[in-house]
Amino acid sequence: MALGKDYATQQCSIARALEVVGERWTLLVVRDAFYGVRRYSDFLSHLGIPRAVLATRLQALTEAGVLVRRRYQESPPRDEYVLTGSGRALWPTVRSLGLWGREHLPGTLPMRIFVHAACGTELGAFGQCPACWTGVDPEDVEMRPGPGLDPDPADPVSRALLVPRRLLQPLETDRV
Amino acid sequence: MALGKDYATQQCSIARALEVVGERWTLLVVRDAFYGVRRYSDFLSHLGIPRAVLATRLQALTEAGVLVRRRYQESPPRDEYVLTGSGRALWPTVRSLGLWGREHLPGTLPMRIFVHAACGTELGAFGQCPACWTGVDPEDVEMRPGPGLDPDPADPVSRALLVPRRLLQPLETDRV
DNA sequence: TCCACTGGGTTCGATGAATGAACCGACCAT
DNA sequence: ATGGTCGGTTCATTCATCGAACCCAGTGGA
């Protein structure tokens, strides 16, 4: 979308939200951030996004307060992009989009299954744990590989995501 | 987004969902459809979308099975675009985006408040009723004007949306 | 010292979409 | 016949995206 200047007449909060996260690639960057991706090169290899677009999106999301950029090592200086509280609040959006795609688009095998880490029950349609009778924050969600997942992907990020993991837990690709 | 040809490597259901509803304007069209907008000219005046883009989006959403186009009068022949079951299943996505925008973007007064018609409780982020602990179909959602709503809008669609209404209830603008 | 390599970008030309205005055709109403 | 409405399509211009190439600081090896 045109950055911050369009949907001009729309003061509706849906339109305002789409100004921030409605551009091409943006929600996939956020999705990857939930999966634990934090580094420029990891987003790049996992998404197949053009470098220039990724740089633009990371900057826009940072300015919007969805991500924070922070230094995780000096010498050489390296920054990582991490979801803020506001970014983590996008979990219902990401979850409901994924659920819709799985249920309403033809030929979609579930790639990943999201369960309540405390009890192992798959999340319900409104992000709740049907067994514990409670809402579940993304920190308490465990992501497990589903039947649609490629068992031997090419890029290191997808390989690191083959095992069950907590959402938001930082991804270790080559840093061992 | 590039229509149907990109995000090519992403078989993830989130990416597939974004192929369908991730383009500019698309989710706003869907939002308006939940509000009861059905006719080309009503989408046009309410959204301020370029005519060519609206035609493209309505066609794409129809091909994707999110909307159906159906004739509501002969002579002159007039068609309307209505959400299908698959389209109505996008309600949690639309709801969560709106709530996120309201809660996490600065200076947003709620324009509309969505409550479970049966009990009057405001909906949660997934479109569920926190009091009844159940999912709420959009048919059972009542939309009420909020404090951020312009009390005297210019276009007839916005005026028709000033009173409390059920979602999906067809909008009467000039057909009286 | 020189060299290659890595991470995280920026720059560039070509392609493709969005925009807004104008046009069009079917169908009324007078 | 004239004018108006509805639901589009066509057009030229502007803007975003794409993919490849380039850049630069730091680091590690010979």
UniProtKB/TrEMBL annotation, chains A, B:
Transmembrane segments: none annotated. It comes from the Bacteria. This is DNA-binding HxlR family transcriptional regulator. It comes from Streptomyces clavifer. Residues 12-109 form the HTH hxlR-type domain. Keywords: DNA-binding, Transcription, Transcription regulation. InterPro entries: HTH_HxlR, WH-like_DNA-bd_sf, WH_DNA-bd_sf. One of its GO terms (molecular function) is DNA binding.
